[in-house]
Design goal:
Layout (H helix, E strand, L loop, with lengths): L5 H9 L17 E7 L3 H14 L4 E4 L15 E2 L6 H21 L10 E5 L2 H17 L4 E3 L1 H7 L14 E5 L3 E2 L2 H14 L3 E3 L4 E7 L2 E7 L2 E10 L5 H8 L5 E13 L7 E4 L4 E5 L4 E8 L11 H14 L8 E12 L5 E4 L5 E5 L9 H14 L12 H5 L6 H4 L4
Parallel strand pairs: 1-2, 1-11, 2-8, 4-13, 11-18
Antiparallel strand pairs: 3-7, 4-6, 5-6, 9-10, 10-11, 12-15, 12-16, 13-14, 14-15, 17-18
This protein binds flavin-adenine dinucleotide (FAD).
Length: 415
Amino acid sequence: MKHYSAFAIAREALRNHTGWQRAWRDAQPKSRYDVVIVGAGGHGLATAYHLGKNHGITNVAVIEKGWLGGGNTGRNTTIIRSNYLQDPSAAIYEKSRALYETMSQDLNYNVMFSPRGVMMLAQTEHEVRGYKRTAHANGLQGVQTEFISPKRVKERCPIIELKGPRYPVLGALWQPRAGTARHDAVAWGYARACSNMGMDIIQQCEVTGIRSEGGRVTGVSTSKGEIDCGKLCMVVAGHSGRLAEMAGFRLPVESVALQALVSEPIKPCMDVVVMANTVHGYMSQSDKGEMVIGGGADGYNNYTQRGSFHHIEETVRALIETFPMISRLKMLRQWGGIVDMTGDRSPIISKTPLENCFINCGWGTGGFKAIPGSGWATAEMVANGTPGPLAEAFGLERFREGRFIDESVAAGVAH
Ligand SMILES: Cc1cc2nc3c(=O)[nH]c(=O)nc-3n(C[C@H](O)[C@H](O)[C@H](O)COP(=O)(O)OP(=O)(O)OC[C@H]3O[C@@H](n4cnc5c(N)ncnc54)[C@H](O)[C@@H]3O)c2cc1C
């Protein structure tokens, strides 16, 4: 694989870009792999990458029913932050945020990580208390956040209206090294690195069945034939319930559509990410100039991957209270993804009732930020057969034992 560098760009410019190679091989399935990962979203690809990089396991296939990154990974609003309340969450999200800082260099692929800062507005007294508590917890966890005054909110983001009609801005939880990255590039960068390690990324290949014998998985049935495996890892987000059903167990996960939209491009007007959870909307500006706007999840379970009109109306109406200037913007595109929600709004990184079968899911509305840390932790679990320190609190047994990791404030409506 050719190294990407400024020199390579200059060389290709001189020879009319004839020397670029495909970023990853278009692989066809072999009859057996040591590890099969189902789902080529960010979490599946990061798991494969860390299996190779951290544990030297490279006889790996990543199987994807559509195109890689075509699920939630390529549909999200790309917010990266680690200002969660509970210790296990802060640990895995901060590990992830730290890995994003060096991801472009590690993968030799520009993922456009932009640590522009994220502010979560406090617009009720309840939120002020909640965010101050989170800032104190983050201080103990080694996550750099602070509660800032309305004056500092306005300095950081002049287009905010502090005295909205219903909810004035009373302050914000500010994380200066949080931000955004280019979502497709994260998937593509991992795919390129995995392919370079000799792994097979098999697209347009749907897993339709899971074969097991004596409490162990022996292989998967796919639209491209049977594939045997030593270990199986399911990383399919909104389709986790369906995969678990194929393997013969049930998950405490519900699938719903989550929607987002972008406006027409405008001149730079906002260089931070702002989340307004009380009115329920959040916004950042993309490098192209579009305002990227996140909306809510549908209020009923479904597997539709598309937007609906009432969500545009609700989200824009809510945001206009805090950002009156967007009332004059045209909205260009709207879409949806199928997210996998757990009751405590925390993920599942776990062993399953089948001995050599593992699952990573439940990231719900906020798993883009977790991709590198989750891949690291899931690879550790698959390689060693048991979860390591980053993942051990996120096992499936917590729902039976009542050890919930309640992140409904940090993740219930936010992303
Ligand atoms: C509108 C929206 C906004 C969001 N905003 C944010 C945000 O700002 N910040 C943030 O941190 N998170 C956000 N998220 C959440 C984030 O996108 C997800 O948590 C994350 O991308 C999940 O990644 P994944 O790899 O687990 O799943 P996916 O990217 O969905 O990958 C799973 C893959 O599995 C494949 N698959 C499913 N079934 C099968 C099968 N039977 N056989 C083979 N392949 C199969 C799918 O095709 C899919 O490609 C948002 C999500 C949405 C929808």
